[in-house]
Amino acid sequence: MNKQLFMDNFTDLNTMGLTKEECIEHCLEKEKTRDFSQYYKGYLVGMSTGTSGNRGIEFATKIEALLMQLLVFFRFPFPKTRRIHIAFILRVFSPGFSRDGRKIKVSYVNPLDTIPAIVENLHSLNPNIISGPPSVLQVLAKEKQRGKLKLFPLLLVSYGEVLDFNVKEEIENIFECSVVEAYKSSESFIALPCKSGNLHINEDTVFVEVLDRDNQPVQAGEPGYVVVTDFVKYGTPIIRYRLNDLITVSPDPCPCGSNFRVIQQVHGRADDVIYGRSESKDEFQFILPDFVRRSIVSSSAYIEEYNAIQTSPTGLTINLQLNPELEELPEKEEIVQTIERSIQENISSVFKGHDSIIPKLDFTYTKISHDFDTKLRRIKRTFK
Ligand SMILES: [Zn+2]
Fold this sequence. Notes:
Layout (H helix, E strand, L loop, with lengths): L2 H6 L1 H4 L6 H14 L10 E4 L9 E4 L1 H14 L8 E6 L9 E2 L3 E6 L5 H11 L3 E4 L1 H12 L9 E4 L6 H11 L2 E4 L1 E2 L4 E5 L5 E3 L4 E6 L11 E8 L10 E9 L12 E8 L4 E4 L6 E4 L1 H9 L5 E10 L2 E8 L9 H22 L6 E6 L13 E3 L3
Parallel strand pairs: 3-5, 3-6, 6-7, 7-8, 18-21, 19-20
Antiparallel strand pairs: 1-2, 4-5, 9-10, 10-11, 11-15, 12-13, 13-14, 14-15, 16-17, 18-19
Helix pairs in contact: 6-7, 8-9
The structure holds zinc ion.
Zinc ion binds next to loops.
């Protein structure tokens, strides 16, 4: 099963007798009124983010939602404190996760508000855990650095987008607390962090297979596609459902003592994997986006934001947003040249290391902004 098949056959797959059309209509209505607190016929129905042709329906029965809640509340390594108050920065939320208990309170913050409104909302909530996509956490870190955000959370939780190694470091340094990852698809809750900060597959509620392009299992330590079978969901059964995500499962056990497998890295969408053209054979070489990410980030401290778009097997466009202070410097041109040379060298050695033809790089310099309505993807591929 994959998303396309799932969406095309949603009405047949839904064992509660709901049709795809009525679920979509309900979601569109919710978005219009911005009232996300309503159940639909007693079920949780939401729509995942994505481009319009690519949106998925999230469907859960009340029992499924309750089990998910219990899973999070009992497994999550909450900091030792009197009362936990988590703020979820979520675009679409559902009534299933609202809670205001003696020990745990859960609040929601709309990421589509303006940054000052998000900051004000967080101040009035005063949560001790903030959970959101890393692109939002990064913006909050900048607000904290500027003295606008005056919160001292005990823990930050990242989900929904790839957590780049340098972004994790930056956020942790500014907030002076750990960032842990949670991993959820719109269909299933796949992995939660442990007290050692590692991301464990919820092996008791999902069965995760990591497969190659020919649907053969890969070794631990090797990247592969995620294929999920969910033991909890019966409203819309999830059986050998292939996600468009690539992960690497760690070959090593976790010091926390749990035997549930650890996800070493979530690489992001399989569509965004870079392909080099082999120099010695007539084939394409698979290059993980993280190599390109590191090639760019490690080139200069003047790089504030970036993205890279692979337009062909031998063409890569690199968009850079440099520190504005650079404009004032007399040696600006030289520095820019050094940055380009350094990125070129790093990318060349990555492609060479993958037996691939070195791509031609095109650099552009621009202000890079991110719309919180879509998932942030710094590395993209535009050819099939
Ligand atoms: Zn662990």
